[in-house]
DNA sequence: GGGCCTGTGCGCTTGTAATG
DNA sequence: CATTACAAGCGCACAGGCCC
């Protein structure tokens, strides 16, 4: 999955990325660009928020007397605003009252987080934090952990939140499913979410889970293969969620079950320090040979005529390039090469016939 | 002879479908 | 439920092509 992060980071800003067509909802690019794209990702909340904003604006205008409204109208608007807020629209909540539930936080690369924070330093929060009331007081954060972190870091007191009405279980599921749709969630994080979901729904088969999420059963199986890794390996992944994708994890898990768990742990450690990539890690765990990267180097040589180069030969795999000083020389050599090649070809044909008989 | 730009194949990934 | 085969997207490295 690490490559995906890299790719995603590099592809950011490029419009045509079919794998991750959705704009990052946690980062408000610029207020002016917000409406269309960003609202698409959270249509209901955004819609509500926009209605509220309209109400607030009109109320403000009336109160300062700019629009010359009657006191009746002000009262009516105030009530409308209060009603709207009651029914799950955005309200301001003190950051002190927001609490994190383990396992719900999405991974975000440090650079991205810094970008988000700087954005929030200068721009208004576009998407409210989504929270759930706690019985013991305060609120659980459902979505918006990084925004909350950033605002805390910026020394803000409160934040615009949307309070949703749901059970914790529904909330977990909601957060999980919403997260799983995020293409930049690492496979390991998907596994953690899946695992939790599976534990609370022990009766569900992989195919059923897959159906609910909208992915294939085999992908569910792949993701859950992290479960078959040695504990020590998972501990490394816990701290480096993006380094081993589900495909490699599945292979490593199989190897582990074949009695190579020590090598699997070692391989994952090597990946975590950047010494191996995923594919190399699998090879490492498989046969233990130091992975030799078979990079087909282009071979070259030059043929000199006195001090100057008469021709320059390069070969990469099955392609040769021969460069001469003039077209005339190239033409004459071409004939010679042709004769040589024809000789080689007939010899090769002879060998083939010998082998066949 | 070497530098620079461009096009493309490679190696990696995610994800689905078929099969065991 | 696991495994295997395959399709497709992506960036990067490097071959290919051109120019000075």
UniProtKB/TrEMBL annotation:
It comes from the Bacteria. GO terms for cellular component: chromosome. Residues 45-87 form a coiled coil. Residues 89-180 form the ParB-like N-terminal domain. GO terms for molecular function: DNA binding. Gene3D superfamilies: 1.10.10.2830, Conserved hypothetical protein from pyrococcus furiosus pfu- 392566-001, ParB domain. Residues 1-40 are annotated as: Disordered. The keyword Coiled coil applies. It holds the Pfam family ParB_N. Keywords: Coiled coil. One of its GO terms (biological process) is chromosome segregation. SUPFAM superfamilies: KorB DNA-binding domain-like, ParB/Sulfiredoxin. The keyword Coiled coil applies. Belongs to the ParB family. This is ParB, partition protein.
């Amino acid at each position: 999955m690490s490559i995906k992060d890299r790719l995603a980071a590099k592809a950011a800003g490029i419009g045509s990325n079919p794998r991750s067509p959705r704009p990052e909802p946690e980062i408000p690019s610029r207020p002016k660009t917000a409406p269309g794209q960003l609202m698409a990702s959270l249509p209901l909340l955004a819609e509500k928020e926009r209605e509220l904003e309209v109400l607030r604006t009109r109320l403000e205008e009336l109160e300062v007397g700019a629009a010359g409204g009657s006191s009746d109208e002000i009262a009516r608007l105030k009530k409308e605003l209060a009603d709207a807020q009651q029914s799950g629209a955005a309200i301001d909540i003190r950051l002190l009252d927001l609490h994190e539930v383990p396992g719900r936080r999405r991974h975000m690369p440090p650079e991205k987080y810094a970008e988000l924070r700087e954005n929030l330093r200068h721009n208004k929060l576009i998407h409210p934090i989504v929270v759930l009331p706690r019985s013991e007081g305060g609120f659980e954060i459902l979505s918006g952990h990084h925004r909350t972190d950033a605002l805390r870091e910026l020394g803000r007191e409160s934040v615009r939140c949307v309070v949703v009405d749901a059970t914790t279980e529904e909330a977990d599921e909601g957060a999980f499913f919403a997260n799983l749709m995020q293409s930049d969630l690492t496979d390991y994080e998907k596994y953690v979410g899946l695992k939790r979901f599976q534990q609370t729904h022990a009766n569900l088969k992989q195919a059923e889970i897959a159906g609910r999420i909208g992915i294939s059963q085999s992908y569910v199986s792949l993701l859950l293969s992290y479960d078959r890794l040695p504990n020590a390996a998972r501990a490394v992944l816990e701290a480096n969620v993006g380094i081993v994708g589900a495909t490699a994890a599945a292979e490593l898990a199989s190897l582990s079950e074949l009695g190579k768990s020590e090598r699997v742990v070692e391989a994952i450690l090597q990946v975590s320090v950047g010494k191996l990539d995923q594919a190399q890690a699998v090879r490492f765990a498989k046969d233990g040979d130091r992975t030799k990267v078979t990079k087909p180097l282009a071979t070259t040589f030059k043929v000199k005529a006195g001090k100057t180069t008469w021709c320059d030969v390069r070969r990469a795999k099955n392609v040769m390039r021969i460069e001469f000083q003039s077209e005339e020389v190239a033409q004459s050599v071409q004939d010679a090469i042709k004769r040589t090649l024809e000789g080689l070809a007939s010899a090769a044909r002879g060998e083939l016939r010998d082998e066949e008989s």
